[in-house]
Amino acid sequence: MKRAIIKVIIIMIMLISFQEESSGIMGAAQVLSIPIGGRANAMGQAYVAAVDDATGITWNPAGIAFCQSKRRLDFMHTQLVPGLADDVYLEFLGYITKSERLMGSIGGGLIYLTYGKFTASTEERGDIGTFNPYEFVPMITYGFKASENFGFGITLKYIYSYLAPSWAIPDASKPGEGSTFALDFGYLHRNIFNVKGLSFGLQLSNFGPDLAYIDKDEADPIPQNLKIGFAYKIIDLPEYSILLTADLNKILIYNVGKDEERDPFYKAIITSWNDNDSFSEELKQIVRNIGAEVRIGDVLFLRAGYIYDGDGQIYDFTYGVGFKYGMFGFDYANIPQHKDIGRNVSKFSFYAQF
């Protein structure tokens, strides 16, 4: 059993180490911390004010109201720790459509994360079996424009996490599984301050109760996060365009008071800003992301970005490329991991808009 536990811990540390909302704090349901979409990841994971596709289900639900097509389908696949655990991967599928009856856009999505195959063993019996931990998150979303330039959105998600069967956990009478729910709230404002091409976005994500696996008294928080950002299309011509983006992320899940008890999620929105010795330490937990995209015609997209995560020890560039042909498109992103892991992660996205 020790081998299985050690492998779980190693993989979870690897996953959290290169995700944008890490900030050195590990909670439950790591599937919620992994940024979705080849385009967003290539642009330094700075996307909250630029999103206008089905990945808005996770990035900013207000963004789906600004999708340029009536319907859009997005899919992403990525191996999360390539070369170290090739059977650890994540997949996303999202669909959005405009609805005149609901005066906005609606959509649904699913995220699936598998941690690969594990072998449980004991000193007395040796290997006793294999199992596959996984997590999945079905979501429904709604976004609408309150005016031509700004809108709001909300996503409801159910989180299920399966870590191990009961026979693989010492002294356990039930499997190591848990579930909870959460809400995302989003706001997007285009042409803000009457500046054409300048957008502001905000998202509060994973607002929901803790997740407990076996003992409810030992529940872990899900990665509640505040994301704000700007996007500025400095040039927008039929032949080409240039888009610049910048995001700030602050994790809102952890606060230890004098009684050594962590605050519930609805209080942590405020108290998590004061759970260190100084406000300067709080600022170090803020992850900075910047990105850029150059569109050439309506076929080729060149992207790059930078992630600055002090607590997660990620200071590196991202890059990627996109291709579009008719109603179909492909996006690729290469993003860094923790500096001690070294090998970058590739993310592949496909979409159709119609």
Please provide a brief summary of the model.
The chain contains 5 helices and 16 strands.
Low-confidence stretches: 1-7, 16-24
Q: Helix coverage percent of residues?
A: 10-25%
Largest sheet: 14 strands, antiparallel, barrel
Shape: globular
Radius of gyration: 20 Å
Instruction: List how many beta strands DSSP finds.
Output: 16
Order of helices and strands: HHHEEEEEEEEEEEHHEEEEE
How would you state the average pLDDT, rounded? Answer: 87
Number of helices: 5
CATH homologous superfamily assignment = monomeric porin ompg
CATH architecture: Beta Barrel
Oligomer: single chain
CATH topology: Porin
Number of domains: 1
Instruction: Tell me the structural class.
Output: mainly beta
Strand order of the largest sheet: 1-2-3-6-7-8-9-10-11-12-13-14-15-16
Can you walk through the features of this model?
By secondary structure, the chain is mainly beta. The chain has one domain: monomeric porin ompg (Porin), CATH 2.40.160.40. The chain is 11% helix and 47% strand. It has five helices and 16 strands. Strands 1-2-3-6-7-8-9-10-11-12-13-14-15-16 form a 14-stranded antiparallel barrel. Strands 4-5 form a two-stranded antiparallel ribbon. A hairpin with a 4-residue loop joins strand 13 and strand 14. The protein starts with a helix and ends with a strand. 43% of the residues are buried.
